[in-house]
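FW: tagging you since you asked about this chain on Friday. Here's the raw sequence from the shared folder, copied in full. Didn't touch anything.
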Amino acid sequence: MITNANDLHLVYFVDILQSLKFVGIKRMQFAKKSLGVGAALILLSQGVGAAERPKTMDEMWKIIEAQQVQLEAMKKTLEAVKPETHKTAPDETQAEVKELKHKTNVLTEVVETLRTALVIPEAKEYKSSYGLGPAASKVYQVDQGLSIGGYGEVNFQSFVADKGDSKNNADFERLVLYVGYKFNDWLVFNSETEFEHASTGQEGSVGVELATLDFLLDPMFNIRAGMVLMPMGFVNQIHEPPFFFGNNRPEVERAIIPSTWREVGAGVFGEVVPDLSYTMYAVTGLKASEFSSSGIRSGRQKGSKAINEDMAFVGRIDYAPSSMPGLTIGASTYLGNSGQGEIAGTDVFTQLYEAHIEWKYRGLEFRTLGSWGFIEDADLVSAANGSTVGSANYGVYTEIGYDVLPLILPNTTQYFAPFFRYEKIDTLASVANGYQDDLSKEQDIYQVGFNYKPIPQVVIKADYRNRNTKAGTKPDEFNIGFGFIF
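HL: got it, structure written out here
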């Protein structure tokens, strides 16, 4: 029975918390809101003015603790009412006891739910956002503040027969830390710092691969500036180990598209329509004085005191029809001068084009990609560099894998996918007059293996790779390793 204003406030508190519980109070964002509402109502029931309401989470915790004391008092009151009294008490007393039991049970349950929600944060879904990998996308899912993620991968490589001077090896290939900060709903900082090969000695290094400010203005139009990843291919933007087959990234996306490829720049991205997305940047250009017979990879400036005499444009478009979930069709292009004022008589206009298709259907994963590059005045570049630089290069690959575990264990959450990949690559597809082709740069690569994920964030990989060139066969290799994201 409601006898005074305090009881009325308490009933309101119970009703509101019950409603919040039924709409998903276990989610952290709702728990925080409900905590504030509940705290305010508790204070009202105690006659506290608005000026004295809690301003910090610590104050709210104190209110929760005080409410638990009240709950204990309610229980003692109930215990003091003997069962015999229930039988002989007036209807009014029995009604009060029943109401008190109801309030105690509901408040106890809701307080425990709030405590759990505050201690155990809401699990975030691993998904890609704005062209970045799932771990790098964590910052876009928080309400505000700091976000930390990362990934790593370890590989063991053994050469099989005719290995020549090649030696079996083990490599902690990379450990990467993502740190992001969400200032508000429309301004986000994101970064990726990579530690390669476990040391800064020998071939190891530490580098910033991503450091951007995103201005999230509208789904159709957003701005990004800083150290940006070139939006080309599959791997350059999403290069975390659980999301590509094999221990090594495809050679096409290393030699032709020089992943991981990043430069200082700025641009825009968004969705023209819900199924059609785009990205466009203006960036510092490549450095042609570092080009070689192995391609443009060494010409990346990586934002390290980059010469900016010549800039470049890079753009990408992807179509993912909602009528065919899992299908993505896209293309990208890079255009810009690479001379940087270092090679007399030419600006070294450099072009790179890429097209790709990806299809994920149930357990099936299929990818195919082709990329073609052209370098102007390759003869002048070759003469300046003392190395034959191709005027044209290309690479194509296709791969297919299938998660077979659901066929054996229909309710499993684990993943086991055998895969096959074929690549054809030539960094000297065409050379300038007077320069000799290097037949070892044209390769056919066959690879088979599997990816096993005991949980989505951890992958164990094994694969066998066979390489053939027109200059002879390179040693086959067996690779085994593991990777993770968090």
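FW: Residues 1-53, 118-122 have pLDDT under 50 and may be disordered.
HL: agreed, and The domain at 138-485 is CATH 2.40.160.10 (Porin).
FW: great, closing this out.
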